[in-house]
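Board notes (copied after class):
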Amino acid sequence: MPKVRATGNRGTTVPLVSLEERARRAARLETRAVYRQADAAFAPFSCPATAECCQLGKTGRPPWLWRGEWLILEERLRQDGVAPQPRSDGACPLLRDGRCSVYADRPFGCRTFFCEKIRGPGRQPVEVVNGLLERLAHVAQTLDESAEPRPLQDWLFPK
């Protein structure tokens, strides 16, 4: 993979960063921007925090992640030194003591309340969500033209 040479001030040596790593960084930044916009769109709504939606075995509705989302989650798990394991009860492997262990870095699907218990001022912002999903798809395709979202478990436990 080609490297990009960066020059620092006063002749300091700056580590070389691969083009691939630069693309991953850009993908994480853009995905975080999408997350901020999703959070703002859903600010008027509330979740009862029952973690019922985290019972993936019961709901049959795992969150599907684009590559940019996985990069954020992967980085978080590495920073936390955590290697999630499949759960015998079918719950999300990131659920700890009834709470999301990666809440600040949770996937888009978890941010947009894909459960029926959401409370808010009216209709959910479907158009905003669809536009943000298109951005997540675009971010993923900048990393891999054939990118498709995958269920959380497929990212966590590749076969």
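Comment from the instructor: The helical segments are 19-41, 56-59, 67-80, 108-111, 126-143, 152-156. The chain has one domain: 18-156.
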